[in-house]
Amino acid sequence: MSGRSQPKPHYLTSALVEAGVLDESQIERALVRQRETGRRIGETLVEMGIASEEDIAWALARQLDLTFVDVRIEALDRELVRGLPYALLRRMQAVPLMRVDRDLTAAFADPTDADAIHELEAESGCHVLVAVATASQISAALDAVFGVKREERRPAGEAGAAKALARHDVLWDRSGLLFLQFHVTTASAQGASEIHFVPHAGQLSVLYRIGSDLIPMAVESVEQGPILLARMQALGGPALDDPEVHARGRVVCPTPASEMTLDVSLARGTDGEAITIFLGTRETSAPDLEALGLEAVDAGRLRNLLDQPAGVVFVTGPRRAGGSTTLATLAGGCDSERRRVLFLETRAGLPVTGATRIVAEASPARAVWRDLAVGQAADVLALDDVLEGDGVLEVLSPAASGRLLLVRTDWQDTFPLLERLLAAREGRTLLPLRLAAILQQRLVRRDPRSQPKERTSFPAGMHAVFEILFVNDAMRQAVKDGAGVERLRELAVSDGYRPLADELRRRVADGITSRVEAARALS
Fold first, then answer.
1. Which of 143, 297, 340, 438 has the fewest CB within 10 Å, making it most exposed?
2. Alpha-carbon distance values, 207 to 186, 194, 196, 215, 217 (Å)
């Protein structure tokens, strides 16, 4: 689709002739009939059986270099549509699709109607970007959104329309941007956490993960896959080079509300590259602690730790558990005006106000973090995806001394991690001096009936569940005395520690999440 607000001046009939859908004699007959009925020329052509709605829409889109869209009622932003008068939209045969800043993309049955386009711009106060859809789809969508009930009627030429749909794919813009924006905003509005683009048998299936269900949403042309890949690469996303079969990355996509951070996974299959997009936060910077879903008491204790001059705080859990967002939030909670904050990560994530952010591959990042901490005289150093597995033992190195170290790692159990640290040569000596807290974290899907209205810092339909171990003086003394992890667990429980399993059971009992989701989070 072009970036202009309206198509070049054109008449619908001449566009259809130029596209080869109709000839001059058919147009003349239709114009005679139009003068008798007073209907629009497009409606007249369909009524006479000369052309189907899809023929007309497809031809116009191609002739005018616009986007031909399949308007799906369930995919519309209902608040956006209801923001304009129903009567106005019905009269101009238009439906808004999405809004990004001051640009409003709308589908018109007649994209050559310059008066309707100008009127929509005046009514909405936006720069209108034009797409093309069939009149019956637009009418049905408007009736459904505004709750208008009408008699079922079989449009003329319906058989021809079905054949046309079988013959034509939806024609998206060649840049891939509208295609990406449309599915990201639609999936987000539907409460989806994932979008899957799966090539198979000469087509591209689009599926949304809503709750625990994977729901088919659309079938697109298989050629749309490479266009989407190119667009995401232009936004800084991953690419698959031979002989790689998998690549991961992150892109920032503009959406109507703001920019949305998307994690992207590419897999090379026999039918082409499958693309999975994980819908991330709409935040343009790290959220505050309460926005993570932490209890107020826990958020307060964490703030106290972030004010300390030194210590180690772990954020643990499997990949895609929201740990990077939590780590960025902790780093953002440090006073960067009085302290030098460095954020070393393996993939670019949320901006952290006041921090110097450095992106490097995992191996170079692990090799350089100690020199970086000392050489830059960092007061606070956040390490995202750098110290995984036994790499966590490096927090006992001299480079961690005298500074606050925030570490996201892949350990999935709090006390085995603690036991591994204690087993290190200097663990019993240094750990009581450095370890401040371990945050074990999971993301689980909410029961749709309990979906909150407020914005979340995590993907739509998801919420974080935390298990937080705060290291107190009694635990430090027990470590020095040689106590085992069971004794440390007892002391933690007496200080308010709640195991992850207990927190998940509570949320199941409160109807916030399902038993299946709770079991998945613990598996």
1. 297
2. 12, 8, 5, 5, 5
Q: How far apart are CA 430 and CA 425, in angstroms?
A: 10
Beta bridge partners of residue 346, listed in sequence order: none
Cα(99)–Cα(104) distance, integer angstroms: 4
Confidence label for 163 from pLDDT (cuts 50, 70 and 90): very low
Same domain? For 151 and 219 the reply is no
> What is the reported pLDDT for 444?
83
CA atoms within 13 A on the CB side of 95: 27
220 shares a domain with 127: no
Q: What is the DSSP letter of 74?
A: G
Q: Give a yes or no: residue 480 inside a domain.
A: yes
Which domain covers residue 154, as residue numbers? 12-167
Number of domains in the chain: 3
Summarised one tens digit per residue, pLDDT across range 251-275 is 888 766 567 778 899 999 888 899 9
Is the predicted pLDDT of residue 487 greater than 90, yes or no?
yes
Task: Mark 407-419 as b/e (b = at least 16 C-beta within 10 Å).
Answer: bbbbbbebbebbe
For residue 148, what is the domain's CATH number?
3.30.300.160
Tell whether 261 and 137 lie within a shared domain: no
Residues with Cβ < 8 Å from 132, sequence gap 6 or more? 57, 60, 61, 64, 66, 67, 68, 69, 107, 108, 109, 111
**Domain end residue (candidates: 145, 167, 189):** 167
Q: What is the mean pLDDT of the chain?
A: 81
246, part of any domain: yes
CB-side exposure of 275: number of CA atoms within 13 Å? 30
Q: Please report the pLDDT score of residue 151 as a whole number.
A: 43
- Residue 482 and residue 371 in one domain: yes
**Residue 61 and residue 163 in contact, taking contact as beta carbons nearer than 8 Å:** no
Identify the weakest region by mean pLDDT among 161-165, 475-479, 502-506: 161-165
Residue 353: phi and psi, rounded to 5, are -55, 125
Q: Which CATH number is 451's domain given? A: 3.40.50.300
